[in-house]
Fold:
Amino acid sequence: MSKVYLKRKISPRVVNGHPWIFNNEVEKTEGDPVGGEVVEVFTHDKKFVGKGYINPKSQILVRLLTRSKAEEINEQYFFDQIRKCWEYRKKIGYTENCRLVFGEADSLPQLIIDKFNDYFVIQTLALGIDVWKPAIVKALEALFQPKGIYERNDVPVRELEGLPQQKGFLSAPFDTQIIINENGLKFYVDIENGQKTGYFLDQQDNRRAIQHIVREADVLGAFTYTGTFEIHAAHYGAKSVLGLDISANAVAQANRNAELNRLDSICRFETANAFDVLKQWGKEGRQYDVVMLDPPAFTKSRETIQKAITGYKEINLRGMKLVKPGGFLVTSSCTNLVNPDLFLQIIDMAAKDARRRIRQVTFQAQASDHPIIWGMDNTQYLKFLIVQVQ
Ligand code: SAH
Structure:
């Protein structure tokens, strides 16, 4: 096995358990490892650090899989790891639908597996994990006897690893429009063409958090995607619900979901650019009891973080202006570069600009099937806030 030696001064990140080793942190490599190969990592004075996969094409040269010298990285390793992930999800109460594997937070860097009942959607976002796809599929088959496994590797980040974007079946073909249950409701999940893996499981607990505030309320939801928050609002007793999304496909799916739950007399969905429409409605003086915002990540790179901050402030300012005094703003951010403190500061700035006083009802993260590892910033990515707006 090839060996990678770190520089004398190791970053505290690596010492404290973070699995990434950047190429500028490496002193020398012994052997001639090819991309995707498992290597051993040592300190400059030859103390064992861990084993991980290497990709000389990537800025992140090695991603560690294990800190144990005895552990072999083979087919059995992936079976054991995935089994542990499943045991953990069962333990914390996520069985039907869950993020079964959440990459780095589950010691399986760059591997995402979402479980939708008997169907599994996989993303292998780095070369060193992509090469283990057959072992991962085999492990899923052995553990779950799935009705279907699908690969959603149609994501640009794979190109940084020299991998093609692709999607398709990893099992016998199946109907990729499936139905899942969540909080007593049913939702279509479009595994093949939906966003990301088809459905945002990370908000599954947060959707329950609106239960009381939407009762008897007129609710506006922007960035609705397949209408999940909005349909929950109707289910929890909202008087009227309007959901907006810029994608006509998303709106069509949201309407189908409302019908599926027989809530289509309460929920209405429209195709619209939320930035424009919320501004316009603010000017017109429209008012809602509850406004819900769940925009996409506004940036993925540190260079454009200011753009994200401006975007979040703007949309929250516009949303807040539409809330009746005493009503509620339900607002999310999934940009991991905007940390929880910064997000709260942005909402505070928006409130000041809107000349509204707010008080925090609840502040949450993603559902617990996406574990957070302290010190691994990108594992704590979702912020979910409810404030009352005076
Ligand atoms: N709330 C959803 C997830 C939202 S994902 C859920 O819980 O499942 C973000 C959505 O915002 C996407 O569906 C995307 O189409 C939509 N979107 C992006 N830009 C938009 C804009 N300017 N106006 C309205 N919708 C937008």
User: Anything to note?
Assistant: The chain has three domains: 3-66, 75-177, 200-389.
